[in-house]
Amino acid sequence: MSESPASRPIVPSTNKVATIKLVLLGESAVGKSSLVIRFVNREYWDNKEPTIGAAFLTQKCQVAGRTIKFEIWDTAGQERFHSLAPMYYRNAQAAVVAYDITKASTLDKAKSWVKELQRQASPGIVIALVGTKLDLAEPAEEGNEDDENTAERQVPEEDAAAYAEEAGLLFAETSAKSSKNVDFVFNEIAKKIPLETQTSQSRLDGRGGARGVHGSVDLMQPSNDLGGGKQCAC
């Protein structure tokens, strides 16, 4: 998304790009791919096909005067791909665990992913619990008393927020369709990761050697730097 020069953080020309490996986890059809496509490409796809294995995407942001490059592994949510997840969250510095606010069972699955990450992922990994499909639960337009959308919510925001606080997670509810809070999530993740961690990781291959393995696919074509030189509004 384009920004006016005045609104962009001033970044010294010698500023090095710090790389953050981030993995996206959650049950199938909660909207993980829609979330990351909105963040990377500023697009919303109504009928996104299920991810097979995992997809790899990148996006650059400017946060607190630093340039951050997210290397994002969007993993498949189907149970048959669960065993591949450790390959993608290995050495990850951050994780987004997504659930659908209109389907209570997806929060239970998200909680199991959080437990697995806290038990097996890198120490100090920054985890964000992210509710998706907020647009389906937002109030109808003013003057319309038949608020059918609100009835679709199954996970109260305060319940998910309380769990996130107890588990030490970042938390936000988002809408890939309207883009609400999408950039906010990645912005907050970047701010939570220590600068020295970013600097050391930028010298490594944050992808964990998993690209192209076990049916991992690239959602975006061509297969070069998918950030395309664009920078998010983080």
TrEMBL record:
<dbReference type="GO" id="GO:0005525">
    <property type="term" value="F:GTP binding"/>
</dbReference>
<feature type="region of interest" description="Disordered">
    <location>
        <begin position="198"/>
        <end position="234"/>
    </location>
</feature>
<dbReference type="GO" id="GO:0003924">
    <property type="term" value="F:GTPase activity"/>
</dbReference>
<keyword id="KW-0547">Nucleotide-binding</keyword>
<dbReference type="Pfam" id="PF00071">
    <property type="entry name" value="Ras"/>
</dbReference>
<protein>
    <submittedName>
        <fullName>Ras family-domain-containing protein</fullName>
    </submittedName>
</protein>
<dbReference type="InterPro" id="IPR005225">
    <property type="entry name" value="Small_GTP-bd"/>
</dbReference>
<dbReference type="InterPro" id="IPR001806">
    <property type="entry name" value="Small_GTPase"/>
</dbReference>
<dbReference type="InterPro" id="IPR027417">
    <property type="entry name" value="P-loop_NTPase"/>
</dbReference>
